[in-house]
């Protein structure tokens, strides 16, 4: 999931989902609904691919899940670069 490129810090679920939608549109892939995306992201957090944190948005405004990449981004880029649909995009990050 190199498209997240979270090296600039933690990102919230909604911000990541917007990036994901743009990315899937660019490569012509199907897009998960936001709830499914969030569930998959939580699964990857449990597998230590991402680090997760919950932050309050202020009184009465709920919580935001924040994520950052736990593994070396180059490892992720190499892994997803094997998919032909992603190879031209992964070249941008090498």
UniProtKB/TrEMBL annotation:
Pfam families according to UniProt: WHD_Cdc6 (PF09079)
GO BP annotations listed: DNA replication
InterPro entries per the UniProt record, alphabetical: Cdc6_C, WH-like_DNA-bd_sf, WH_DNA-bd_sf
Domain Cdc6 C-terminal: 13-78
Gene Ontology MF annotations: ATP binding
Keywords: ATP-binding, DNA replication, Nucleotide-binding, Plasmid
Protein family: Belongs to the CDC6/cdc18 family.
Protein name per Swiss-Prot or TrEMBL: Cdc6 C-terminal domain-containing protein
Native organism: Natronorubrum bangense
């Amino acid at each position: 999931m190199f498209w997240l490129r979270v090296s600039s810090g933690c990102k919230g679920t909604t911000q990541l989902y917007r990036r994901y939608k743009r990315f899937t549109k660019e490569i012509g892939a199907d897009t998960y609904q936001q709830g499914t995306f969030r569930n998959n992201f939580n699964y990857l957090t449990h597998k230590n691919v991402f680090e997760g944190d919950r932050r309050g948005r202020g009184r009465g405004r709920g919580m935001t899940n924040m994520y950052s990449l736990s593994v070396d981004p180059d490892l992720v880029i190499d892994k997803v670069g094997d998919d032909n649909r992603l190879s031209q995009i992964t070249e941008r990050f090498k």
